[in-house]
Structure formats: C-alpha cells, structure tokens
C-alpha cells in the first residue's frame, strides 16, 4: 500500500540481501528485490509476507535496467524510496598476477560500477523521500587491503570512498549515506573458488581461525546503523580488530599482511 516505507535491495536473492529483506518486511516495509538470479528472487519473495515485495531482474551494470526497475518499484510504493541497499556483489580471490581479464572486468563492473549506477539512478527518488538513506555494501577489505584480495579490496575501497563522498554531497538533500564493512559473513559468496587454487574462500577463513558473522546479525546492525549518525557500519570481530589496527598499529598490520602474502 502507498505510504509504507520502502527499501530496494540488490543482491536480494540470497545472503545479506535476503536477510535484510526479511527483517525490513517483518517491520512493515515494502521491499523491492533485485538480482540476476530469478529462482533466488522467487525464493526470497516467498519468505516475505504476502503482498510486501516485488521482484526485478537487474544486472547492476546495466543503467537502463536500473531505471526501469526503480520506476516500477516506486510506482508500486506510491513514489517512496526510503532506502536503496546497494548490495549486489561477487568475490574474486587470489594474486592479482593470476587474475583473468574477465575476472577483473566482472568485479569492477558489478561491485563498483554497479554501485555507482544504483546511486545515480536512485538519487532523485531518495531526494524526494524525506529521511531517506543510501546504504552501500563494502567489506572489511575496505579497511586495509589484504594479500590475495587485491581486486576485491580495490573495488570495496572504491565503494567506501564513494559513500564517504556522497555523505557530504547529499547531506543538504537530507539523504543519509552508510557504508557496510563486515568481516566474514556466512553467505554463498564464501563458496567462490580462490583463483589459482582448488579451495574456497570459506576454507581460507576456517584455516585462519576467523569467525563467521550470521547474516541475521548483519541485517540487524544495518537497521541500527541507518539510525545512527555514522557513515561506517563496521560489523564483526575481525572487522573491528582490523579497524583498530589500521588506525593505531599500521606498521604491525603491514608486517602481518606481508607474512601472510599470497604469490
């Protein structure tokens, strides 16, 4: 129904996007689910209260698809766009020297250009909705770059930088901007193979003895983070430790990263 608060979520077919959709819908929000995974979109929609969600097949690299999806969603929401959750992303791990051209183009196109496209497309609708927010998913990799995650860190630092810039640019329009920087979240993204190896990112996290943060906790922290007057939403013990070390012990952190370097 028109007048309900409304959130549009990319990467809504699984993982963090799905968890955020469930939380916001449970709290009475209308939800727009966007992804390239049609089966996943249908599965997420089935988890939400009847009539609370619309689904949109969107490749975030395609500006035309962005415009069409947001137009359709805001028509259903009575013109409201209270939150755009720019969350779609892929993972690429391994040394930069071993990355393929396709891997480079895909991760830059989806994880960075896709976020820029979403912000641009949603801006007029966010501006027209009082108290609105843009929420972009980055990563703890945007706190300090890690060996073996050069491409991932590059695009996530880009998302962080864009978010910090838009926090200033859009303040006068009354649009809040947040960037989510979680450590390792238990989602299908961790099942991606590390380039040049036969093991997954999940295997690497377990071998390092690091924790996984449940997606339901991430969704709750995003909800709370929108309310607080801070740009950065840092989630998980590993992310918080990394942020502390990057600020107060940069030399020690650099040595630690070199010891674990992937070549």
Write up this protein:
By secondary structure, the protein is α/β, with parallel strands linked by helices. The chain has helices at 15-26, 38-47, 63-76, 101-127, 150-169, 201-207, 215-227, 237-248, 250-259, and strands at residues 6-10, 30-35, 53-57, 83-86, 133-137, 176-182, 232-235. Strands 3-2-1-4-5-6-7 form a seven-stranded parallel sheet, with helices on both faces. The protein is globular. The N and C termini lie far apart (54 Å). This is Short-chain dehydrogenase.
The level-1 CATH class? Alpha Beta
Report Rg: 18 Å
Shape: globular
* Rounded mean pLDDT score: 89
Number of domains: 1
Query: What order do the strands of the largest sheet run in, or round the barrel if closed?
Result: 3-2-1-4-5-6-7
Give the number of DSSP strands. 7
| SS content category | alpha/beta
What CATH calls the topology is Rossmann fold
Q: What is the helix tally?
A: 9
Order of helices and strands: EHEHEHEHEHEHHEHH
CATH homologous superfamily classification: NAD(P)-binding Rossmann-like Domain
Task: Please summarize the sheet with the most strands.
Answer: 7 strands, parallel
Oligomer: single chain
What can be said about this structure in brief?
By secondary structure, this protein is of the alpha/beta class. Helix content is 48%, strand content 14%. The chain has a single domain (6-259), classed as NAD(P)-binding Rossmann-like Domain (Rossmann fold), CATH 3.40.50.720.
Features:
263 residues, alpha/beta, Rossmann fold, 14% strand, globular, oxidoreductase, Short-chain dehydrogenase, SDR_fam
